[in-house]
Specification:
Distance between the termini: 25 Å
Radius of gyration: 16 Å
Order of helices and strands: HHHHHHEEHEE
Structural class: alpha+beta
Number of strands: 4
Strand order of the largest sheet: 1-2-3-4
Number of helices: 7
Length: 177
Amino acid sequence: ETAGMILKELGYKKRTIELAKIAGYMHDIGNSVNRHDHAHSGAILAYGILKERNMELEQILTVTAAIGHHDEGTGTAIDPVSAALILADKTDVRRSRVRQKEKSAFDIHDRVNYAVSSSLKIDREKRLIQMNLELDDSICSLMDYFEIFLERMIMCKRAAECLGCRFRLVANGSKLC
């Protein structure tokens, strides 16, 4: 939904928005194989599923390319659908993602997700995509956030540029980039 919302707010066509939603829905399917290289295995799995459903080849390739490029280790934004997927995925930081119930067992990812609430704001006229982050620093520090999310935020910056926008990160009311 978030990937579609980004493109809708920026004025993209209905089918492009729908392709972004499909890519968003399927983007982590590769985790069923292995977390390592899940973007690539996910793209291959998605290709087969979409082909079985008789989607047009060009649209299948748009979705699978977005899925294959969404991981920060190997991917980058190559078109509006992949850019929207990257932005939606990499800005998805929230308490409900934490599955571990015992706070003493939290790893850094759990602490960050538990401590953060975020929202994404799209300003079509200013061509600005802004992530607003509220971080409870009694749970984790801003440095903890950047330890695991710096590369992802750089990826968001590049994805926003692919959409002809700027990316801004505001944390606890302070503009960071």
